[in-house]
Amino acid sequence: MTRVMATGTFDILHPGHLLYLERSRALGDELVVVVARDVNVRHKPKPVIPEDQRLRMVSALKMVDMAVLGSRTDIFEPVRDLRPDIITLGYDQYMDELWLEGELRRRGLQARVVRISEREPCELCSSRQIVEKILKERC
After folding, report:
1. Are 34 and 24 a contacting pair, CB within 8 Å?
2. What average pLDDT does range 59-75 have in this prediction?
3. Which of 15, 38, 67, 79 could link 58 by a cystine bridge, Cβ 3.0 to 4.6 Å?
């Protein structure tokens, strides 16, 4: 059985998230999703939706077999606990694949890293674009 792990913030779910998770799920038999903790989101604005609600929304998606919150202190903790065969990154995730592969090996973790480069070609396929539209049209 091939376990795939996808990670992300998943703030304001949109078709781009669905595409990323569908493509991730297609790589294996089981899809586990790690939802970023609010305190760990530093590379972009803090999520609008609280972590427990984001976890609930991701858990409800049919392609997701299991969803968990990430660790507050160590991004590799869920990898050690869940032992995925593949870790996927979305086209716009800031993590460098080569760095991640090196860190996994250094920790004795054997997951392969795959970048899902496909993206959904729609105007509102990013949380940032959705927030900008709401602000423009409603404020």
Report:
1. no
2. 97
3. 67
